[in-house]
């Protein structure tokens, strides 16, 4: 799995619509990548991401991205449901094929329930384009080591 | 592709949450199945499904189901965004693996854009468990032959 010192995978994600690409390897100098298993799932929607949106230290975390194995339509709608005016500054990126997630080696088997395999829940702090810290939920989907309070302090 | 006289595939779909199964082969005596390419996509969300929700003859169509190759979390959220209190009576079912869609032979290649292949847009009128009429969009995603005005008259 992804570890301290790694580069961010040079794999396109999508934002807002299916053909709008974002490459975190090129775009994210320093900041935070939050991986989640499923847009609109209760743990992701009620606890994990709202915890970041509400956190007093969010603005000092640099660029913050949420990444999930969902398509751009779904990620866009999910973003609006959590943060209608994008006032948090968090950006919501889709990894529809799961290629970015597999490159980080954080995929887990979810296809029997959700149709496709998904991303373990994680938080990766990035500094100067490299992984500075990484916290991956050991049970894939819980909200503990990757929670806002643990990451943003 | 699915044709008049066919049975409805005996394949579970999901409703509301990933483990809540619905089998239209068993449940749908007479009514309507509306297939769509993608939850939260503009054509599906702004035109196709709202056209059914607003149609004066919807209530006489029997049981009405929307089916898409999306997971249950996404379909549930999409349903609430279109019809917050389920007042239309339309039920939104996910076909996360695409198995139901492939059994109807209405899948088209969408994986490069959306991560998974999806369902052509269609409307199937079902009577006594068999396909009474079927209208499939020839370009996969347009809203013409399967529009509410064409199907509900």
From TrEMBL, chains A, B:
<dbReference type="GO" id="GO:0005829">
    <property type="term" value="C:cytosol"/>
</dbReference>
<dbReference type="GO" id="GO:0008379">
    <property type="term" value="F:thioredoxin peroxidase activity"/>
</dbReference>
<feature type="domain" description="Redoxin">
    <location>
        <begin position="3"/>
        <end position="152"/>
    </location>
</feature>
<dbReference type="InterPro" id="IPR013740">
    <property type="entry name" value="Redoxin"/>
</dbReference>
<comment type="similarity">
    <text>Belongs to the peroxiredoxin family. Prx5 subfamily.</text>
</comment>
<dbReference type="GO" id="GO:0005777">
    <property type="term" value="C:peroxisome"/>
</dbReference>
<protein>
    <submittedName>
        <fullName>Redoxin</fullName>
    </submittedName>
</protein>
<feature type="active site" description="Cysteine sulfenic acid (-SOH) intermediate">
    <location>
        <position position="44"/>
    </location>
</feature>
<dbReference type="InterPro" id="IPR036249">
    <property type="entry name" value="Thioredoxin-like_sf"/>
</dbReference>
<dbReference type="InterPro" id="IPR037944">
    <property type="entry name" value="PRX5-like"/>
</dbReference>
<dbReference type="GO" id="GO:0045454">
    <property type="term" value="P:cell redox homeostasis"/>
</dbReference>
<dbReference type="GO" id="GO:0042744">
    <property type="term" value="P:hydrogen peroxide catabolic process"/>
</dbReference>
<dbReference type="GO" id="GO:0005739">
    <property type="term" value="C:mitochondrion"/>
</dbReference>
<keyword id="KW-0676">Redox-active center</keyword>
<comment type="function">
    <text>Thiol-specific peroxidase that catalyzes the reduction of hydrogen peroxide and organic hydroperoxides to water and alcohols, respectively. Plays a role in cell protection against oxidative stress by detoxifying peroxides.</text>
</comment>
<keyword id="KW-0049">Antioxidant</keyword>
<keyword id="KW-0560">Oxidoreductase</keyword>
<keyword id="KW-0575">Peroxidase</keyword>
<dbReference type="GO" id="GO:0034599">
    <property type="term" value="P:cellular response to oxidative stress"/>
</dbReference>
<dbReference type="Pfam" id="PF08534">
    <property type="entry name" value="Redoxin"/>
</dbReference>
């Amino acid at each position: 799995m992804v570890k301290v010192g790694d580069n961010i995978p040079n794999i396109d994600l999508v934002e807002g619509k299916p053909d709008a690409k974002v490459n975190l390897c090129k775009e994210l100098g320093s900041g935070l990548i939050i991986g989640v298993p499923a847009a609109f799932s209760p743990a992701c929607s009620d606890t994990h991401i709202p915890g970041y949106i509400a956190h007093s230290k969010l603005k000092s975390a640099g660029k913050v991205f949420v990444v999930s194995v969902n398509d751009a339509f779904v990620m866009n709608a999910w973003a609006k449901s959590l943060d209608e005016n994008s006032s948090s500054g968090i950006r919501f990126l889709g990894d529809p094929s799961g290629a970015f997630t597999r490159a980080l080696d954080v995929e887990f088997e979810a296809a029997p329930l959700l149709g496709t395999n998904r991303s373990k829940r994680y938080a990766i702090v990035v500094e100067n384009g490299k992984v500075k810290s990484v916290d991956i939920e050991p049970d894939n989907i819980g909200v503990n080591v990757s929670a806002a309070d643990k990451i943003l302090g």
